[in-house]
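Sat 14:20. Reprocessing the chain from the morning session after the first attempt stalled halfway. Input below, unchanged.
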Amino acid sequence: MISLTDIHQAASRLRGQLLHTPCVESKTLSQITQAQVFLKFENLQFTASFKERGACNKLTRLVQADADGDGNQQPRGVIAMSAGNHAQGVAYHAQRLGLRAVIVMPRFTPGVKIERTRSFGAEVVLHGETLDQAREHALALAAEQGLRFVHPYDDEDVMAGQGTVALEMLHDVPDLDTLLVSVGGGGLIAGIATAAKALRLGIEVIGVQTSRFPAMFNAIKGTQLPQGNSSIAEGIAVGRPGTLTQAVIAQRVDDLLLVDEGDIEQACLMLLEIEKTLVEGAGAAGLAALLKYPDRFRGKRVGLVLSGGNIDPLLLAAIIERGMVRAGRLARIRVGARDVPGSLAHITATVADAGANIEEVHHQRAFTVLAVQNVEIELVLQTRGKDHIADVLKALHEAGYEAKEQ
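Finished this time. Tokens:
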């Protein structure tokens, strides 16, 4: 089992090779949650994820081992399986260290992560629908081509590298009470818990998983919650917990919590709006838990690891749009009117006078239960919130129209 010494040694290897990311208080999130919230911006790493830490530590050790064995020996190639962030970390640092890198990625991996991985010179192989299927293929290729397999989480060097996150957090904010850490295979929280428990007596380390992929939750708590097929937090959508990581988590992590997809969506949008920082679903899991279980953390000094920022632009657009709907800033209303010239113009003028902006208009004659002389008009509006929607509907009613929100 890894120790604090392993993590300090990893920190020495990583010095100068990646960023000591900020860990600062969010005053607005603190006010909202009634906890003192500190954010660790791992999404600011060059590959936009903490995964660089473990990958760099592992590859540096491989290169050192080859050099120690024979000074003329060329470093061997490496292979990894990943949904994206581990892939980029391995690819980037392999390129820096002169290693060949082959990355096996599931077919569902967002295109932005695939292209970014290729940009670091890695050979990308798309295989399987899940990380487990990608892993089996990667192991087969490793045996076939003589490559060293670099596991994304179930590896002591990788865990030690990830644990340097906690070293930096407790250096910058020594009196944190609780650390909230997203959990997929468990490499990040295993490293963080090892460092944090050794450095600060009484600190609480809590893991967060998505309810669609509760593999580690099931393993630790003995439950049998069902597993889904996909998640907005694809970085922690892991179907099989690590063996090494599970042992560390069982001993050093205080609790595991589950959050739903909507919780993660809300957290992503809040970080974008409030902190002006882009965080992927897995990176927002900690904030999602803080928002879902406020009583548990009220009054505490809580550190959240924003573990990554590699999110597909189309997914981000959907999150923003859905968030606007939930907040009442994007609304869909239906208006019934006489099918005569000028009706649509009068309706849009009424909406404009009420201060709403029209984003979409659908004019429906055939698919409606209204009388044949009438038409149903569906409007998608940009508004200031739910109260403003009510004002728009009131204006339409006063103008003589039947109108309701959908």
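The mean pLDDT is 92.
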